[in-house]
Design a protein that fits this description.
6-stranded mixed β-sheet; alpha+beta; 48% strand; single chain
């Protein structure tokens, strides 16, 4: 299967919606039953929808005013690469900005079977 940039963009739009809505069920539904999700290069990837749902629920619980953007940089083989940026607040009115890269492998039905991300982080405390 060859992934189109349009298919990748469609998936990224859904990812934006679930992050901004802090929807762990929706996030898990973007992945295959046995999909993998790696946060950074040194963390053991989450495996399966339940693990993804649980981690999303934990991580997004304290976030507010989430604003996510992304740009599909290109599709290759069965996946693609995207640049993304997300800003949100956490308790104490601290604003966090993440800027990074996704590698996404999609199935024929548009679900993600393998997901990897890397990012840099900046906080409003860094600017003080």
């Amino acid at each position: 299967m060859s992934t189109s940039t349009a298919a990748l963009s469609t998936w990224l739009d859904a990812y934006k919606r679930v992050w901004e809505e802090k929807d762990p069920e929706g996030a898990a539904a973007l992945f295959t039953e046995d999909g993998t999700y790696a946060w950074g290069p040194y963390e053991e990837p989450m495996r399966g929808r339940e693990a993804i749902r649980a981690r999303w629920a934990e991580v997004t619980a304290a976030q507010s005013d989430v604003r996510f953007t992304s740009t599909a940089l290109g599709a290759v083989d069965s996946g693609g690469v995207a640049h993304w940026n997300c800003k949100f607040k956490v308790p104490g009115d601290l604003e966090i900005e993440l800027d990074g890269i996704f590698i996404v492998v999609l199935t024929n039905d548009g679900l993600c079977s393998d997901f990897r991300e890397w990012w840099n982080e900046r906080t409003s405390a860094d600017e003080a």
